[in-house]
Amino acid sequence: MMNTFFFIILFALLIEYAVSVVANLLNLKSLKSDPPPALEGVYQPEEYRKAQEYIRTNTRFDVVTDTFSLLVLLSFWFAGGFNYLDQVVRSWSFDPIVRGLLYIGILMLGYSLLTLPFSIYHTFVIEERFGFNRTTPRTFLLDRIKGLGLAALLGAALLSGILALFEHVGYQAWVYCWLAVAAFSLVMQYVTPTWIMPLFNKFTPLESGELKEAILNYARSVGFPVTNVFVIDGSRRSSKSNAFFTGF
């Protein structure tokens, strides 16, 4: 049955997709084969063209994946898939909160399986073509399993609280849900680098020396308190360089 919420959600989905596609097309249009004058001497022309082609390939791939995701969502929606799954889950003799977890979990698992081929293609075709990929099939599989396990564990904990609030608090539940999500996000700022990321990568304290001192001096100069600097074995998955700061 179509109602006001149906059209609001549909309109929001289409607008979000349209804005994303237009932004990607504008980005593609702005790409140039030759480096601008400001970058002359910084990039070799061939390296710059390769970087632009990498961006172009990934942008086009993003458009394809976004289009696929939207078509799958709308097809499932218009075919009554959400309602059918809801009726199936409601027929199971579980607590309402457990049924809610199962409903969301089935949807997330289905989406993960549908998008798995795109992840495989991006890692082992696109990244491989440009010489960045170092991920082995074993590492890729383990990452997916760990990711799903963490999503189930942490997502279930947060979602259980949200469902419980809507079940027992009433019309003011959204306020408490907002507070719960905000608190959860803050806690994850500490939990993620401390316990979650080490499940995927090895963190080794950077030895004392010129590099560490330069990093610490820069952090102090911008008022960013740093307690330690670690080296992450990111090269297990990609040859692209990366660095980040995290914490409060």
Question: Can you describe this structure?
Answer:
The mean pLDDT is 91. Helices cover 70% and strands 2% of the residues. It has seven helices and two strands; from the N terminus they run ααααααβαβ. It is an all-alpha fold and 248 residues long. α1 runs antiparallel to α2, α2 (45-78) runs antiparallel to α4 and α3 (81-90) packs across α4. It has three domains: 7-79; 81-200, no CATH class; 202-240, Metalloproteases ("zincins"), catalytic domain (Zincin-like, 2-Layer Sandwich), CATH 3.30.2010.10.
Short recap of the structure:
The protein is mainly alpha-helical and 248 residues long. 70% of the residues lie in helices and 2% in strands. The chain has three domains: 7-79; 81-200, no CATH class; 202-240, Metalloproteases ("zincins"), catalytic domain (Zincin-like, 2-Layer Sandwich), CATH 3.30.2010.
Attribute tags:
single chain, 248 residues, mainly alpha, Zincin-like, 7 helices, 70% helix
SSE layout:
Blueprint: H1 4-30, H2 45-78, H3 81-90, H4 96-129, H5 137-168, H6 173-196, E1 203-205, H7 210-221, E2 230-232
Helix pairs in contact: 1-2, 2-4, 3-4, 4-5, 5-6
Unreliable segments (pLDDT under 50, ≥5 consecutive)?
A: none
Form type: globular
On the 0-100 scale, what is the average pLDDT?
91
H and E order: HHHHHHEHE
Distance between the termini: 47 Å
* Proportion of beta-strand residues: under 5%
Whole-angstrom Rg: 23 Å
| Share of helix, binned | 55-70%
The structure class reads mainly alpha
- Tally the helices: 7
Largest sheet: 2 strands, antiparallel
Question: What spatial order of strands do you see in the largest sheet?
Answer: 1-2
| E-strand count | 2
- The domain tally reads 3
